[in-house]
Design goal:
Blueprint lengths: L1 E9 L2 E8 L5 E5 H10 L2 E2 L1 E6 L2 E6 L15 E8 L5 E8 L4 E5 H9 L6 E8 L2 E8 L3
Parallel strand pairs: 1-4
Antiparallel strand pairs: 1-2, 2-3, 5-6, 7-8, 8-9, 10-11
């Protein structure tokens, strides 16, 4: 079985996937080969669908957008930035290259939704008719 680590993006389309085999070896697989593996049932957490001759692969328990993007810079939240009233206004992040950056909440939300923040989960909550964005820092 193969375990999906993330996706590769070319423009706005997925061009391939990074997977780990049973021995822990990392492999880059182009999209057409990935479809063939999912079709054979050897990719953990993915299903194959054919609708009128169009082939699709879908994650079983999450959205494709939630998979990390492997060919873009990744970030990790190190700390929060607060205003004078104690409200969170941004985050300090570390890049893959070790750079420390101060980013706004809006920018972190955008990056996290693209799967570019390693230690964050994002989603929406519905409370009393309103839709709330939720950013959960993992590992705190």
């Amino acid at each position: 079985m193969y375990k999906v680590i993330g996706k590769y993006i070319n423009g706005v389309e997925i061009s391939g996937f990074g997977v780990e085999d049973e021995e822990g070896k990392f492999l880059k697989i182009k999209f057409s080969d990935f479809i063939a593996l999912v079709k054979r049932g050897v990719v953990e957490g993915f299903k194959y669908i054919n609708i009128e001759g169009q082939e699709y692969v879908l994650p079983k328990n999450r959205l494709m957008s939630q998979l990390p993007t492997l060919n873009k810079e990744q970030y990790e939240i190190e700390d929060r930035v607060f205003d004078s009233e104690g409200k969170v206004i941004g985050y300090i992040v570390i890049t893959d290259e070790g750079k420390r950056l101060k980013l706004s909440k809006a920018k972190i939300w955008e990056l996290a939704f693209e799967g570019l923040v390693k230690n964050v989960r994002v989603g929406y909550d519905k409370r009393e008719g309103e839709r709330l964005r939720r950013l959960i820092v993992v590992g705190e």
